[in-house]
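Newbie here. two chains, one complex. Structure please?
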Amino acid sequence: MARYAKPSSVEEALHLLKQDSWRILAGGTDFYPSLGSRPLHENILDINGLAELRGTSETGTHFVIGARTSWTEVIRHPLPPAFDAFKLAAREVGSIQIQNAGTVAGNLCNASPAADGVPPLLVLDAEVELRSAEGARLVPLGKFILGNRRTVRRPDEIVTAMHVPKRSASGRSAFFKLGARRYLVISIAMAAARVDLNGDGKIKQAAIAVGACSAAAQRLSGLERMLEGLPASSLADAVGRYEFAELSPIDDVRGTAEYRREAAGEIVRRVLAMAAEEGASREIAA
Amino acid sequence: MSLDKATVSFEVNGAPVSFTVSPVARLSTVLRDELRLTGTKVGCDAGDCGACSVIVDGEVVCACLVPTASIAGASIRTVEGLANGRMSPLQESFLRHGAAQCGICTPGLLVTATALLERSPHPSESEVADALGGVLCRCTGYRKIVKAVMEAWRFDQKDIPPSRLSSFSQGAISPSRGEIGTSKRRDSSAPGLDSCLLAAGKAVGASPIRLDGMPKVLGTEVFGADEWPPDTLSVLVVRSPYWHADFSFGDLAAFVAENPGIAAVFTAKDIPGRNCFGVIPPFADQPALAEGRARFRGEAVALIAGEREAIADLDLNSFPITWKELPHVLTPAEARAAGARPIHQSRPDNVLTAGFVESGEPERALADAAVTVSGTIETAYVEHAYIEPEAGHAFMDGDTLVIKACTQAPYMDRDDTAAVLGLAPEKVRIVPTATGGGFGSKLDVSLQPLIGLVALKTGRPAALAYTRSDSMSSTTKRHPASMWATIGADREGRVTGMIFEGDFNTGAYASWGPTVANRVPVHASGPYRTPNYRATGRAIHTNGPVSGAFRGFGVPQATIMQETLYDALAEKLRMDRLELRIQNALRDGDRTTCGQLLESGVGIGACLEALRPHWRRALADAESFNAGNGNTRRGVGVASCWYGCGNTSLPNPSTIKLGISAAGELVLHQGAVDIGQGSNTVIAQIAADAVGLPLDALRLVGGDTGITPDAGKTSASRQTYVTGKAAEKAGRALREAILRFANVSAHAELSLEQGALVIREGEAVRRIDLSAVEADAEGFVFRSEETYDPPTQALDEKGQGKPYAVYGYGAQLVELDVDLRLGTVKLVKITAAHDVGRAINPMLAEGQIEGGIAQGIGLALMEEYVPGRTENLHDYLIPTMGDVPPIETILIEVPDPEGPFGAKGLGEHVLIPTAPAILNAIRDATGVLVTKLPATPSRIRAAIREAAR
């Protein structure tokens, strides 16, 4: 008989994780679809009793998003404009039903190449807090996800929070999801950008990430460096010259690699314009 | 291996409940199986469809994704809790706006919309779409749902006193008699009428709310998975994981013995009858359980029956079966290549059959044409994606096997199941449950012989509800088509000739492949005069999923070929695209490519002409939109359809039984299965008017083969026409019998008043106390039973003859924006003009049009079933509420002399023009035609890139 446990404290959860091998159940929005109609054979560690993992808070230096925070809570919680991409992405995760149940950490741990939550958190320089009975560690999100469905989380660890440094929560951000239908759709490609302008309208700092165009979403650090110091009006040209070496898109049922590569450039151009231009339309295209 | 159970207490619809279940059991399972609250539907078990939406502590979630442990102490609201003694305003609004068709998605929509309305009682359209975007509906096209949610406040009795509520209903639609060639625009916000407001003889042409609507909005409707007797065995189907493979079983008895709770395993060896079914008997070739060889991935090879929990916990990895993979072919090109092994020995070239129509001298006409255009089109497998997966249960009633399941064709189910199980047809009784969408796939038997076998062999009731992946991998699809054609015209733009060829991937078994092969050549010209013509349609076997019937039987695919070529023709001729079509439209007195003389009732000209002002306005809008130099271009497209109603040149009768009961009701045995399209209401309207009694006096009895005569299958857009005609005949016969009994003239008026049948003529009143007259064995005092079979004629070797007695026509205009850099399409508006002959129920007709358009949008832009890859509703995409634009419906009424009250079929017609009109509009916007469907952003961009090279 497989085990089921629903601890009421993180310590208890970590103790259980040390003892045995578990599958972690949180919002259920990836757990049940991957289970399908098959019977359960794994031990289930239900972390829905861990109230401390839910909600968003602030420290002197960081915004801390609890692992169990739902997408709906992300949308409703007041956050600076640098989080706009994150909130826009939250609105595009599945449907309202999914946003009400699914958690931010679950999206990261599931590590789908098309996880909507990853690019907006990448442009916020988010770090993933992992805890085990041995202690805690912080891993930059870009290093947390290793590839398609693979993360650095050890079997004895759980993700407890995402940390966004306040120095990275500057400027404004935007998100663009490209899909073949309006709602409830897996992205063909997506992009997030955060742009911090100097007083003269030139780029002080840009952070850009693209999802669904590689095994894990990628920051485009080469492009970010190119954009530093450029006037906001010349962003499009710079993107046009960029080669997007970070991306390695594939052909699948949603689109060809060639299309993804081309579309990535276009949506990066658009999110940059949305994030950079004063009074830019905040509308998310279908 | 299952988890220890735990007791969970929570509140459902205000009542405290407590259950001992697995802590990770899905909430949907607990609600349905333990609490028997089956209003919460299961469509996918993956959060992809929203059918199981419930409100947990104020937030709407998919119950299939919620572990029961998470709801301890929570308050749950389900559809059953929305009505409080009377329907909620939202439920009433759904009913009156026709927002529920089949009703399977309705509970999820109602629950989700309730959560929205409690926050925002007067939501905008975009708020509604944002809130409801996660609930899929395959029937309605969403427009009436949006309207119903936005206007729910109107039905709130706090705001409107009851008297105003009813006057609001009455004033909305005045029943109007159709006139030849007239069109009418229905105000689509106008709600439906209570049938009690309709006087005798006034039902046809009015829009009473659907007679079977109330249980759909209350969540009490019983679908295939919603009912099972005590002591029911669960059934699990073992399916082939390979395209093509031989298999053998190990020790099945040992497997049963090793697994407590497993009652039995059944294989092909256990089938007592002929293990071979098929909707067209001469082509029947499909085993209920494969015999040693599986020919497609998903084919059933064995059944495991057991107690519900044992089946749920069963590990199929230990099932003793050995597979030996065989080479497979997945495309017609591979299947027809030299050296390809036949999938069926009796069909050496993998050609199931071919259809052919030829008239005039097509080669010569094309050689002589002033202009010709040629092209190719390829379409994908398309999945029906009804939100209700196949489900039902079977049990023995004495020596009769009773099967209650969702279906489109009860008598065909009966005969196929009886043959497989070696029973006389009368020893199988099919009782259709409500059917949560069908669109053609529920014409073929699926689980009927399987659960029938278990019930027959074990003597215990047997139930089975397909999972979404079972449903998608094992049931039929729309045929992928590879088509090529040439059309020629003279300098004035008169079409002079056309040659069409199409290969249709019919998959591993015949199903409706012959129908597609035969229907396509008859229709591939479109509703246009084409004096010189040759069309060939071939159904080719592959190891792909079985292709069968899907709304249009191949005609939607063929129409994409023809209608996109018409745009190319117009361009070459420098003619207006709509005017080219009007000029060539079939008119009364023309002959079809089959040589059939269309004496009257040809409405395509009227449809196209009705679009003229919209076309001009749309072109002007597009011109001004495109005057800016944006990355987004507006395009406008148009396409037509015609479609013969009923079987192609084959007998296709419907029988209707009708009577006046001793209890004083007009009882209609309505065997035309209502899969959401509205036959329960439409056939009743026709019958009531034919008898001359008010609709309100009528009681429906469904298509139970034990008590209701065969009204044929719900397919081929035949029910309103064929069964409607049988209902009209039966109604008139019943009236005649009453009038004769009362010895009055045809002008007499009938009414049913407190158990009496009252006949009035002038001053004379005759009152028949029905309880005083001797009733027959079925309780009828007066009765009639009439059959109608469309007068068709066989096609000769050149496809000449009279394939159909009635055709319906339509044309649609699409306006859309293409993002040139991303290849994405945003639909702006669709204007649909359909000639229905006579709109028996305008609101239901409009619902068919909107729903068909939504499926056409899917076919054009997003739907591609890739076997083995998209067996779920997140990889296989169907339109959501945000993908269907405003639709303006223009109902054209050119009466057909054959149809009841002049009516023609509509159900399939409505899907046909949408996809070609979209492709034509994309071409108008971008200059490129996408020739491989669906036109995904990736393919549109590829075409734009290619054109720029």
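Moderator note: The longest helix of chain A spans residues 257-276. The two ends of chain A are 46 Å apart (CA to CA). Thread marked as resolved.
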